[in-house]
Design brief:
Blueprint lengths: L1 H21 L3 H8 L6 E14 L2 E4 L5 E3 L4 E13 L3 E5 L3 E5 L4 E6 L1 E6 L6 E4 L2 E5 H8 L11 E7 L5 E7 L2 E4 L5 E5 L4 E4 L1 H4 L15 H5 L6 H15 L10 H8 L6 H7 L4 E6 L2 E7 L6 E6 L38 E3 L11 E6 L2 E6 L3
Parallel strand pairs: 7-9
Antiparallel strand pairs: 1-2, 1-3, 1-4, 4-5, 4-6, 5-8, 6-7, 8-11, 9-10, 10-13, 11-12, 12-15, 13-14, 16-17, 17-18, 19-20, 20-21
């Protein structure tokens, strides 16, 4: 009789455990029992998963999902905003993978994120062998001086590109990029950006940041310009495909690619070109395309659609510097395609409140809706 009672108790226990597991509760219960208190919460939309056990993923169903140290988040065709203690915030784009470690360290393995780090707080990001921190918090950790609470908060973005290079952008405040030995590779000023090549990201080679000051585009772009020969040929091919096509008077970069994609056979080439900020306007019966480097410093190529044998202005080959136009837009994917109607999270400054907004692209229309208040 006693054995039967023990057996029934075991069955009830296993049934309850299975019920909790299928409802996504055990993670919170286990973490709380281990004394690991939440470090923040996540608001998500679309396909967002968390790591229940090693390589076992479960969809996030709760509208406000707790984040603990050790939590791994994988965003598919969706997006998420994570609010951490001390008013720190991370916005996660689609097709991204990140985890939360000790000592306020965030590990980005795929995709892209935007972040906000208030003054007098700390948070660091690890991408491959690189660490990205606010310069203010780095100074505080290496000196006995107190950091003023009136210092600027750090707002920026990190993009893990498809070629395994990493682009770091500072929208406000200064950021420092460190290698695996904690040596400072470069410091970005407010509104600055840089791209670190893949071999430096993996730690296989040392990276030297471009010299500050007014260097020519050719010198500053350095080895990153090696692929521009191929991009030139791609643009020539695009001109041939678009020749004779009736173009709308309000032609822009997004509409240009939406017209090109159905008639161009190699979508991989289109995705390659979309990795660069582009401006397209109608000129006569054809178009004028300006393509910038990924850091938005220089216009590297200017091409008229009316010429189908060569690019008209290969600025990157010349000593002449042409600043990238402010309205050049980045339509790259990581690795999803914004034109496909999937949601893409992009950190932007909304008026003076500096809020994060989710831009949901569908065809040529943009619906700007705050993801969270």
């Amino acid at each position: 009789m006693r054995r039967r009672s023990v057996y029934k108790s075991l069955v009830y226990f296993l049934g309850l455990a299975l019920l909790l597991l299928t409802n996504g509760i055990p993670w919170t219960v286990i973490e709380a029992r281990e004394g690991n208190l939440p470090i923040g919460e996540m608001v998500s939309r679309g396909a967002v998963n968390f790591d229940v056990w090693e390589n076992v993923w479960k969809g996030v169903e709760a509208s406000h999902f707790p984040i603990f140290k050790g939590t791994k988040i994988k965003v598919g065709k969706g997006s998420a905003v994570i609010n951490l203690v001390n008013n720190r915030q991370i916005e996660v784009a689609q097709h991204s993978l990140l985890s939360f470690g000790e000592n306020d360290q965030i590990y980005l393995s795929e995709g892209s994120i935007g972040f906000r780090i208030p003054a007098a707080t700390h948070m660091s990001f690890r991408v491959g062998a690189l660490s990205i921190v606010s310069s203010r918090s780095l100074q505080a950790s290496t000196s006995a001086l107190m950091v003023s609470a009136n210092d600027d908060e750090a707002i920026g973005a990190i993009l893990y590109n498809s070629d395994k290079s990493v682009t770091v952008k500072s929208l406000q405040g200064k950021l420092s990029i460190l290698d695996q030995d904690r040596s400072v590779l470069t410091q970005l000023p407010s509104k600055g950006s840089t791209t670190i090549p893949s071999r430096a990201v993996s730690g296989k080679e040392k990276w030297v940041a471009p010299q500050s000051g007014r260097a020519s585009a050719k010198a500053s772009l350095g080895q990153s310009s090696q692929g521009f020969n191929a991009v030139e040929q791609y643009l020539v091919d695009f001109s041939k495909r678009m020749k004779g096509m009736k173009l709308p008077s309000d032609l822009n970069a997004r509409k240009y690619f939406s017209l090109l994609e159905p008639i161009y056979p190699d979508q991989k080439i289109i995705r390659t070109v979309r990795q660069y900020p582009v401006k397209v306007v109608k000129e006569g019966e054809s178009y004028n395309l300006l393509l910038c480097d990924r850091d938005r410093r220089f216009t590297i190529i200017g091409d008229l659609g009316s010429t189908t044998d060569f690019v008209d202005k290969p600025y990157w080959r010349q000593e002449e510097d042409v600043t990238c136009p402010e309205d050049a837009v980045y339509l790259g994917d990581n690795p999803g395609n914004p034109a496909s109607g999937a949601a893409t999270a992009i950190p932007i400054l909304l008026n003076e409140a500096m809020m994060w907004t989710l831009i949901v692209s569908s065809g040529d229309e943009e619906d700007r809706r705050p993801l969270c208040p």
